[in-house]
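Hi C.,

You asked whether I'd gotten around to modeling the 610-residue construct. I have! Everything is below, sequence then structure, no commentary in between.
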Amino acid sequence: MTFSQATRSDILEHLKKDHLDVLAIGGGITGAGVALQAAAAQLKTGLIEMQDFAEGTSSRSTKLVHGGIRYLKTFDVEVVADTVQERAVVQGIAPHIPRPKQMILPIYDEPDATFNMFSVKIAMDLYDRLAHVTGKYANKVIPKEEVLQLEPDLNPHNLLGAGVYLDFENNDARLVIENIKEAAASGGLMASHVQALQINHDEHGKVNGVRARDLLNGEEFDIHAKIVINTAGPWSDQVRNLDNKYHEADHIRPTKGVHLVISDTRLKVPTATYFDTGKHDGRMIFVIPRFNKTYFGTTDTDYQGDFKHPEVTQADVDYLLEIMNRRYPQAHLTLADIEASWAGLRPLLSSNGSSDYNGGSKKVLSDKSFNELVTAVTQYNAGKITRSDIEKVLSQLQTAQSEKSASASSISRGSSLTVDADGLMNLAGGKITDYRKMAAGAMKKIKKILDPQLSQPLQLPDSKNLQVSGGHFDPAKVDETINEYAQVGINQGISADEAFKLANLFGSNAPQIFALADRLPAAPGLSLGETLALHYSLDNEMTLTAVDYLLRRTNHLLFEADSINKIKEPIIDEMARYFNWDAEQKQLQTQALDKAIANSQLHYLKNEVH
């Protein structure tokens, strides 16, 4: 089964005519996770997204399946335990996407530092125990001299040493599309560029579907569904406001995060690095190598602007460059060094004073509990108590009352699952790492609602073992399997570099891509590997525009910006042949891509400088 523009009209016809069990509004990671689990449960499932899949927020993260070690600065143990355990689940269901990486956490002797050399070891020990990390990825503390051997460009002033621990890199947009594809393969009706206009109700005032518009042709139609679930991320409040029976206050507080990309010839880091900003603002900054680039972020500011197009501002750039040049004083980074960028919104809950079903609460540890925990960890490390003793201390932690008004940075990344009085279900907040668990929580609620209407109880899938498209292989043998897939490509005449790149990007779908070489020659201006990947994505990933492909399917626009001008025209030419675009359509596609490139490369700021 293909999942493409050619099948989109059929999907829309089913959305118009079928009576669905579940309809998700929002095609980011939350909606994708719900749709996959609902389709796997053999429910009649639909999903609509007003943009491309993952376009709004889920392609704009720090691109980590992050363990959340920073939450241990206030010993928010529930969040960290949930996050690190869920991280392992995500690695199992999408083994070609999250990859283990060493993370360095330099410790500086400066006011308001998140960790000192003692507390970072305690935090990392607790982190490893919660995540069951052992062996080569077990944490360690290294002295200043060793830190500077690893990262000679780091500022040595007031540097005490560093913690080293395990984290996972991620490809956020691909995680979304692989969930979407698997849901479609399981019978889900997944449609991008379809906008919800209003929430519909039956004669009893209960939600029974939505009025929607196909944004590609302007047609309006109704979609009928027993359950409508709002998975719109930062747009969650806007979706609720489409319901004329909803009158509660907004509960999403969006904050903007910005990331900047430079060449590693300007600053090379050996592995991901994570440190305090040094600005006494409670923030920490990631510096991450990817391919031959280095990217860093993130900012964290309240946001009330255009949700579709959050922009990187001069203030954002100044903030990040000031921090980077303080931590890497020989780099002398400037606006001109920025090759690409992205800005995204986090769907933070505006109030989260108590623990929610996903373990997301902002708690401050009392002095008594902190001392008890420090003592217990110290005794454990000395072999005086057992792990069960540690777990007992954790279970008895006393927490102080949360701050009544928190800063944007200190709101915990929890999630909420609510059902409005008329039946509209809302799944909001959370982190990309938690998406599977959030969806499973929603499915339990959906089962409770639907079971009385069904002839037999709904059987929910084991979502911890529900692998996504591209992830159908043994997660304990990632490297070996990726090597095998790459060899298939090499045997088809694809260069080794490209074969490994595509094997890593597409996982178990890579052999299907390489098989296209039997009938597809290299397109003009494109390598054979680039040609095959593009055609696979057009056939199977609902790729409709050049921006879809170069930004969200491949990340080319972000991490290969230095070659984007070389490849953009051949990509558009080949897509024009595939879709039979006329000259006007081709020009519109070119303009849209040029605009995306200009925004990513911050032309609007760089032009002001000149």
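If it helps when you're writing up: The two ends are 51 Å apart (CA to CA).

Thanks,
B.
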